[in-house]
């Protein structure tokens, strides 16, 4: 069987420009870790199962809203900053096209292109103002002005994935079980599965990615459980 070169296939790279993957992953992991840690903390303090559910539900709602708003604001602000820099570059191209073409040629020469070829290509690009703008922005800012992430995609994916992640450690309590250990175990499984899923988009093995997330969540839960236990003992809870 002949191996087709990747360059000849239409889609040999994943779509990383939509702005949903990072907030989705971050949201799911944050939801899992946050509520696992919250439940471990209040559970370690000896509160009732009803209080654990109340704390977890409050953490889910507050965290999901905060994550969604934070992602929207963050991505929107970044896009606005890029737009301001693009406008600045457009003005420079309109006022000083020759100087900008020389700057572009110098950048290519620094990368190893012959001076004559770099100058020739820069002059050819200069004749197309919109393409010149895109090329200059990519070279000078390292971004593509036509492929900026969507703030709404980031906000919605973060909100939904945080909610799902935060719900996982609450499932056992919502089903009527009152064991803190069981809730934390289910949350740990959720962390491992989430980490394994993330490995699909990276070069890590599924089990190492899952174990990494499980370890990070366990450290957070252990710290809050210890704090909850100490406060519970000092305050006479339980």
Automatic annotation (TrEMBL):
The keyword Iron-sulfur does not apply. It is a multi-pass membrane protein. The keyword Ligase does not apply. The chain crosses the membrane at residues 152-175, 181-202, 214-237. It is found in: Endomembrane system. One of its GO terms (biological process) is intracellular manganese ion homeostasis. InterPro entries: Ccc1_fam. GO terms for cellular component: endomembrane system. GO terms for molecular function: manganese ion transmembrane transporter activity. Keywords: Membrane, Transmembrane, Transmembrane helix. This is VIT family protein. It comes from Micromonospora terminaliae.
